[in-house]
Amino acid sequence: MKYLDEYRDSTAARTLLDEIRRVATRPWTLMEVCGGQTHGLLRHGIVSELEGTVELIHGPGCPVCVTPLEAIDLAQQLSRRGDVTLTSFGDMLRVPGSRQSLLEVQAAGGRVRSVYSPLDAVELARRNPLEQIVFFAGGFETTAPATALAVQQAARDGLENFSLLVAHVRVQPAMEALAAASDNRVQGFLAAGHVCTVMGCESYGAFVDRFRLPVVVTGFEPLDLLEGILACVRQLEAGQARVENQYARSVRAAGNRTAQDLLREVYEICDCRWRGFGVIPSGGLRLRDRWQAFDARRRFRDVPALPVVEADQCRSADVLAGRIKPPECPAFGAGCSPESPLGAPMVSSEGACAAYHRYRILQNG
Amino acid sequence: MADDSIQPGWQRYCPVPIPNDGDRILLAHGEGGRLMRKLIRDRIVAVLGGDRLHAMNDAATLPRVDGELAMTTDSFVVSPLFFPGGDIGSLAVYGTVNDLAVSGAQPLYLTLSLILEEGLPLAVLDRVLQSVAQAARETKVDIVAGDTKVVPRGAADGLFVTTTGVGQLVPPVPPGPDALCEGDEILVTGPIGCHGIAVLCAREELHFEPPPQSDSAPLTQVVAELRTHLGTGLRALRDATRGGVSAVLHEWAEASRLTMAIHEETLPITSAVRGACELLGLDPVHVANEGTMVLAVAPGIADHALSVLHSLPGHRQACRIGSVRARRIAPVTIRRLLGSEQALDEPLGAPLPRIC
What we know:
Radius of gyration of chain A: 21 Å
CATH superfamily of the largest domain in chain B: PurM-like C-terminal domain
CATH superfamily of the domain at 66-170 and 284-299 in chain A: HypD, alpha/beta domain 2
Strand order of the largest sheet of chain A: 2-1-7-8-9
Radius of gyration of chain B: 22 Å
Distance between the termini of chain A: 26 Å
Mean pLDDT of chain A: 92
Number of strands of chain A: 12
Shape of chain A: globular
Largest sheet of chain B: 7 strands, mixed
Number of strands of chain B: 13
Largest interface: A-B, 37 and 30 residues
CATH class of the domain at 66-170 and 284-299 in chain A: Alpha Beta
Strand order of the largest sheet of chain B: 8-10-7-11-9-12-13
Helix content of chain A: 25-40%
CATH architecture of the domain at 66-170 and 284-299 in chain A: 3-Layer(aba) Sandwich
Helix content of chain B: 25-40%
Order of helices and strands of chain A: HEHHEHHEHHEHEHEHEHHEHEHEEHHHE
Low-confidence stretches of chain B: 1-16
Structural class of chain B: alpha+beta
Shape of chain B: globular
Strand content of chain B: 15-25%
Oligomer: heterodimer
Distance between the termini of chain B: 17 Å
Low-confidence stretches of chain A: none
């Protein structure tokens, strides 16, 4: 398969590993921002191969993981009303809220459906005019253009039974919050390739100037990840801090203008609460005034908010902020597993805890 | 999807008889009267044939069989009913026939139970029955008994099928996973994950070019060839249906108390399945097959087994994926690209509901 097999060549991967070890004169600490990268690094055994050379701190790029509990609880409340069908991507449905996951609410009679595209939710609204269809719109700038498109489509079709529960988040403000923290240990970032495909990488210029930390836009295959790490280490060894684009087969400097226009048209930037981080300035998106009619929070403002309860033993906040690695959490593998997760990072396909659980290494070859 | 704005069962409160417009299943088709008799006689028995079925007695009587019998049952709720590479009709026959074949039996008889949703187009039922009949002919099994029920709109999704199969055990029966030994080699008979991905893409209207095809197929011939050529060197074989290759390996590891160790790089995966899995965050080892089998053979005969498989149509991509080892920390392990050996988890939950 083009773009897959050629980036999974084990000989080329070995050569890159050797080159990283050769170039690094001291241990470096990098953060891969995206959960997809975390899974790639663990699945292919790169984290353990680089032990002692490069420490990888796993970033917050798992949108399902950082979606605040109150949004998940509200989604569950909506699905219990009887006149609302709550739709979302499969990952979001498995995330534990304060009391249950959406899948458990569904089993108890709540109206929940997983869809593969927000446009499928619009189609559901068209086919079921007597029912309110809410799409739970989480995700970074990668998924937000699709939900913006869904709102525009619903508006064009005059659908009054479609709305969005918006929980979109923006990557760069979170990286800024991490880099600015007094206890930051990250010396270089592997920026998220998919997000940069939409947003481009020009905006990282100001980030690099401000924090003097290298940023390498990186893909998700083993060779992508190794090339991204090598580029970062080379910059650090040379005392440089630049924006570099390893993932040029997908990312243009300016990004995807059409998608960005769509985003700007429908959403505006707002301060946003991230699970595990607190409020991140400019860290989220909300519907512009013009599209308020499609805001589920507004349409169902009579739904009472329940008190938010985080699981006691779960240290997903520390995992998401890179303060601890998943196995350092006392609940990891003991009380918290993909079968009975306490926190979102253990269920999401981009969650760091799930990656450590799934790709635990028995021995190196 | 049924129209959610209509409550299930609403027609129970409507005493006005609805005229049969001749092209949809009505509740009356399941109520024991003339419509039901006509449906069964003209549409079902006429297509499925067989003397025992034509007799339409309460039970089929079967001739004496010399030796032990094998019996199995399976329900089919796949959505959509028709998908690239197959449909619920052939799937219902192959699924049960294959369960008998991999158990070491020659499939002989099937029963067929249909649960029909009110409103199902008769043309759809006809297409499914044609497919059942064709698959039964192909696998040389007789459909000897059946049942038909109709449920109100919304209480089922179009059409559900249950088949029960009886077969005659043909000794020597492959010993099965209890007999696995250290050093046995693990093979697959073709590319993995095709069925689950084909059904998922058809249901969710995910457009890949070319569309992924199901591997739904009868296994009677390939099982017979393997048994003839490998004899007792064939330790265990299983069609890797729900839960995929991973589920089979976990069951074998549990039964044998050994470790099933596979290599990621050797897994045969079509580009369509690989692409769809990457996009959807699925792992092909957990995705269902309906034709591809996993087998374990004695040390040293893997090449012979592969040459047998490669000589059969549709099995040219059969290959070795790993071996049986002494039990270590994990029941199933997978060797990744850079050589690290990881535990392979069992598939969790139902990432792909209603695929068979």
